[in-house]
Each structure stands twice: as structure tokens, then as C-alpha cells.
Amino acid sequence: MSNSVLYEREGVIGKITLNKPNKRNAIDFEFLKTLIECFKQSSENEDVCVIYSAKGKDFTVGADLKYGYDLLTNKERLAEAIEFLESWQVLTREMIAHPGIIIVGLKGWVIGGGFEQTLLCDLKIAATDTRIMLPEVGVGLFFSNASTKLLPRIVGETRAKQIMLLGNEISAEEALNIGLVNQVCKPEGLNRILKKTANMIVSRDHLSLRYTKKFINENQDLSIESVLARESIAMIATGQSEELKKRLEKFVKKE
């Protein structure tokens, strides 16, 4: 596994860091495979929370266009091109299957697939210098990472069409206003806030966290009856946990 993406752990908190600042974290096939492997490893380690961030000025400028151009213009690399494109979807599958809460820290440029692959992150914190853009339609490419479903779910169909069809730049402030991100902060405070948020997350009940993420991701496409049935099962499971008993005991004694 290359060092284009770093994975490390601090207790139950995983850290996945894009690590090609000299290339503005542009994503080629090797980079993407490493990113997938990092999320897979984090998932296998059952990290309760993941801080997803990047080194350098930009989070990522998206796909490495020079690499992509070489793939598309060389018939002998057709199989690699198809595998590269499919790997963006594999990344989304790994992220949505991850049992932990993924917190992403955006900064600088966040372009195309580089932004689309963050839509599955559970919490999104953006530095004030963040600039988001989806330029695919303008250059004749198409979107990835289930963004044609996830973006309308987050910002509404009308706004999603505007963002995708026009490809206009979105500032951190606008992203906050339309619900694309949860919080905006000064660039120098981004890492501190990511760590503080992660510590807050892992202080919560871990089983409840896992159910909450899973059900919010999955229940939107189910009937009310199906959701009620699933919630009943989750309430029983969490209600029987020893962790709940300990937390309730502390609360009762405090009262």
C-alpha cells in the first residue's frame, strides 16, 4: 500500500489522511486503491469514529485529469480505465458499510469526485477557504459515488440540479447555508475541531452510534412500518446492553 493515503489509530478513533499535497491530492488509480484499503482496514478495526482529512492546502482537486486523459486515449489501457471508474463506486460501498462515524474536514479546493466521495461522510466540517465545484457536465464526464442520489437527498432536487448542471463554485458559507456541511471554521482551527468532535462522538454509546448511522442511511427508502419494526429491534438491543445500564446508573445517582 502506497503512502499517498495514511491510516493510523488513536484508541477507537481512526485517522485517514490524503497525503499527496504536492499534487493537490489529485486522485489516480493507485491513490484510490490505497484510500479504499484504508477505509476497509478502519472498518475491520471497528473504529468508532474516523477523522478524514488531508495534508496540504487543498482537500483534493478530484481525479488526476492527466492520468485520466492517458487512460481514455490509450486503447490498451481500457481495462484499467474501467477498473479505475468502478473503484470510485467501490469506495462509496466501503464508506457506507463502515460501522463508525466518519467526520471529514474540508479545505481549499474540493472538486468533482473528490467532493462526491465525501457525501457519505456523517459529519462535514469546512474551513472558510473551502471551495466546492462539480465540473463534470462542463467537460463531458459524469458523476460518481452515488452523488445523483445523495446530493438531492442532502440539498433537495432543485439545488442539486443547479450544482451539477451549472458547475458553479460553492463557498464554505454557501455550503453551510444549503446544508452541504455541518460547520464552518477558520483554517487554523480545523484539525482542533475535528479532534474535539471525534472525542465527543466516541464518548457516546457505541452501539447506539452504530444503529443511528445505519438506520439514517438505510431507512429513507423503507416504509414507515418497516422503519418502526427496525427501530423496535434496535431499542431492545440497546436496552439490553451493559453500557446502557452503567450510563443510566450514573444518571440516576446524579439526580
Structural notes for this entry:
With 255 residues, the protein is an alpha/beta fold. Helices cover 53% and strands 16% of the residues. It is built from twelve helices and nine strands. The strands form two sheets. The protein has a six-stranded mixed β-sheet with strand order 1-2-3-4-6-9, sandwiched between helices. It has a three-stranded mixed β-sheet with strand order 5-7-8. It is globular, with a radius of gyration of 19 Å.
Topology:
Layout: E1 5-10, E2 13-18, H1 29-44, E3 49-54, H2 65-73, H3 78-97, E4 101-106, E5 109-111, H4 113-116, E6 123-127, E7 131-133, H5 136-139, H6 147-155, H7 157-166, E8 170-171, H8 172-177, E9 183-185, H9 190-202, H10 206-219, H11 224-239, H12 242-254
Strand proportion: 15-25%
Helical run tally: 12
Tell me roughly what share of residues is in helical segments: 40-55%
Regions with little confidence, pLDDT below 50 for 5+ residues: none
**Number of domains as seen in the coordinates:** 2
| Helix and strand pattern | EEHEHHEEHEEHHHEHEHHHH
Note the overall shape. globular
Radius of gyration, rounded? Answer: 19 Å
Q: Determine the CATH superfamily of the largest domain.
A: 2-enoyl-CoA Hydratase, Chain A, domain 1
Looking across the biggest beta sheet, what order are the strands in?
1-2-3-4-6-9
CATH architecture of the largest domain: Alpha-Beta Complex
Mean pLDDT: 94
Q: Report how far the terminal alpha carbons are from each other.
A: 52 Å
CATH class of the largest domain: Alpha Beta
Q: Biggest sheet, open or closed, and with what strands and sense?
A: 6 strands, mixed
CATH topology assignment of the largest domain:
2-enoyl-CoA Hydratase, Chain A, domain 1
Tally of strands:
9
Secondary structure class reads alpha/beta
